[in-house]
Amino acid sequence: MHIMEGFLPPAHALGWSLAALPFVALGVRSLRRQLQAQPEQRMLLGVAAAFSFTLSALKLPSVTGSCSHPTGVGLGALLFGPAAMVPVGLVVLLFQALLLAHGGLTTLGANLFSMAIVGPFVAAGLFRAGRALALPLSACVFTAAALGDLATYVTTAIQLAWAFPDPAGGFAGSFAKFGAIFAITQIPLAISEGLLTVLVVNALRRFNAEELQKLPLFGQREVKA
Amino acid sequence: MKLRNWLILAAVVLLTVLPLWLAAPPAIGPDGIPGEAFGGADNKAQEAISEIAPGYRPWFSPLIEPASGEIASLLFALQAALGAGFIGYWLGASVTRERLHREMNEKAAGPEAAPPASNLSGKNTAHAD
Fold first, then answer.
1. Residue A191 contacts B where some CB pair is shorter than 8 Å
2. Helix A73-80, helix A85-99: angle, nearest 10
3. Residues of B in contact with A66 (CB under 8 A)
4. Of A58, B39, B96, B111, which one has the greatest count of Cβ atoms within 10 A?
5. Long-range contacts at A10-19 (CB < 8 A, ≥ 24 apart)
6. What is the Cα–Cα distance from A52 to A74, expressed in whole angstroms?
7. Tell me, what's the ipTM?
8. For residue A139, what are the contacts with CB-CB under 8 A and spacing of at least 6?
9. By the CB < 8 Å criterion, does B29 face chain A?
């Protein structure tokens, strides 16, 4: 999902950066509030950030014959709410843009929007919906993490199709091309991410049950269910 | 529960390994040489951009580029290791904490009831899940 440095026209680069900016502010505020209210949640935040760090470094082969990587932001979105994952995603993307020449500063806004905004918000929304429908917890976690991951890559395809419409097919033709590159490749990886997220949530439920009760999305659920 | 976790892990490994056989071989390029197998999707997107908009030139380049593919893989490994190291620390600390809790509860539950049994029962206590 990393759009390479310089590969978005300046207007798009600027536009996505401006669009991502309020979410960064929102995320920093959300994180600060949660940690001030409950400093004991730092460990769980560390786990969520570490999960994203690890998964987004792993480039895995896919059935399309190319490699891509999971994002790992779904877990944190379920634990701390989607906004909280924006600063975490920013750290991951900055690390990769500055040290690895993977992604870039001019495309940081667009990459942040797909990985740390659309992904987490889709994941948290699906998780909420699943819990409201009283689906089993593991099914909700899996669906949220897997589809959140996929949503990130669909967003990247939309961003590129918008910036580079096909001369013949326009936006749709271009979206079909980028969608085939990103979204189809991502399907098995998204399933993997969903499964791994279920594993970590299982461990959290066993080891950090008390902390989980106090988290926004998990806590309410336990009371209702 | 334990079994299910192992099954999940096995599924992830299969999902990662099977594509190596299932994926179609890379298409033959215009130069008659097959393209790179399992290249990065990000690079494929870059190629697609130059197909759709041949005139487009990137207007900014990375400040620092890893000196070679090896250096890049070093940095990616570092990134993964930082994350995995923290998760390992958390898991280790959690397992120890759970065991200490259990031992404390056992001591509190019956200090004179069966003191020697607490050593034996330490291992076979049922897991919470």
1. yes
2. 150
3. 38-41, 44
4. A58
5. A10/A106, A10/B59, A12/A110, A12/A159, A12/A162, A12/A163, A13/A106, A13/A107, A13/A109, A13/A110, A14/A109, A15/A109, A16/A107, A16/A109, A16/A110, A16/A112, A16/A113, A16/A159, A17/A108, A17/A109, A17/A110, A18/A109, A19/A109, A19/A113
6. 8
7. 0.88
8. A130
9. no
Look at B87 and A167 and tell me if their CB atoms are within 8 Å.
no
Per-residue pLDDT of chain B (129 residues; tens, 9 = 90+): 689 999 999 999 999 999 888 877 776 666 666 667 888 888 888 889 988 888 888 888 888 888 888 888 999 999 999 999 999 999 999 999 999 999 999 988 866 555 554 444 444 444 545
A166 three-class SS: strand
Task: State which amino acid sits at residue B107.
Answer: K
Of A87, A85, A57, whose CA–CA distance to A70 is shortest? A57
Could you report the per-residue pLDDT of A54-108, keeping only the tens digit for each?
999 999 999 988 999 999 999 999 999 999 999 999 999 999 999 888 999 999 9
Name the residue with tokens 């099954």.
B7
Cβ of residue B127 closer than 8 Å to a chain A Cβ: yes
Q: Which residue reads 């920093």 in tokens? A: A28
Amino acid at A1: M
Query: Is B42 at the interface with chain A, CB within 8 A?
Result: yes
